[in-house]
Amino acid sequence: MAKISALVLKPERDFQAKSVPADPQGIQKFIGGSPIMTRLTDGIVVVSNENATEEDPLNFTIFQRHNDHVHELGKLYSDAVFAAESEKGLTSLDKDQKQLVKNWFQFGRDKLLLDE
Length: 116
What we know:
Layout: E1 3-9, E2 16-21, H1 24-31, E3 35-39, E4 44-49, E5 58-66, E6 69-77, E7 80-86, E8 89-91, H2 95-103, E9 111-114
């Protein structure tokens, strides 16, 4: 089973750089449910549990800045795995991508802010 270098963010915890499975079955076991992949920017995706609900711990809220306004895009419950995506599927985040993900949380651990 192939592994990739990713950033893992669990509710109310700090980022952890971890080696996670790159295949759908492995990532499913890692996040504890049906994986759903959300494409962010710069080839970065966040994989989370599609079956997580408001009953699960809130991890963070995703916002996007557009012109002079900030819009809420949605809330992510339960564990999240940030990885890169290529034509081969999930791949490891490089150093710059890891820093970019951390920069998205510049306004707090519970707020991910994407620029236009």
